# Entry
Amino acid sequence: MERRQPVSAIGSVVKLIQEFNKLPGIGIKTAQRLAFHLIRMPSEDSSSLANAIIEMKNSIETCTMCQNITDFSPCNICNNPSRNNKTICVVEEPLDVLAIERTGSYFGLYHVLNGCISPTNGIGPDELTIKLLLERLRLSSEKANGNIEEIILATNSNLEGEATSMYLQQLMQPLGYKITRIARGLPTGAELEYADETTIAKAMEGRYTL
# Structure
């Protein structure tokens, strides 16, 4: 009896699965399900998804002030005169800004580091936006009534987040700023983007001076 040869997968499908597999939290099985779901989708729906991705990549930029992602710069938070410009909340990722904004309990400004210090992953202070933060503080101090009164360190409560927070504290404390750290409400190892609004609000309320 002749042995049947295995049917090779279509190259374009394999490539799509590989691209999905590069996304955070997407394993190979999930990538396969997503790829075959797209195959079964109507052409107009898959085209709409592809166009949305391309449009997003072409229109999104980085806010020149806070380094958050935005459609225009300065972003709508930095450009909002009703925000408290005496306080800057330092977070790791743009998703952390969204998480804090959902609480409706914080009305200051932000600075996005776009990551955290992680020597095991080859990420040091120079790979983050720390220099831009220091320059922002310097420019603010030169403006009339523009001095920052408080810097809130809202990095994640894991090893890398704590190391980043400690580094920033040591860097900025000699400059005379009031530096606080979010505390109560977030368990050790928790990430802001996955915490609920009440937990984040409690962590902001319970911040302590470093």
About this structure: Residues 1-7 have pLDDT under 50 and may be disordered. The helical segments are 11-21, 28-40, 43-59, 94-103, 130-141, 159-172, 197-205. The CA atoms of residues 3 and 197 lie 59 Å apart.
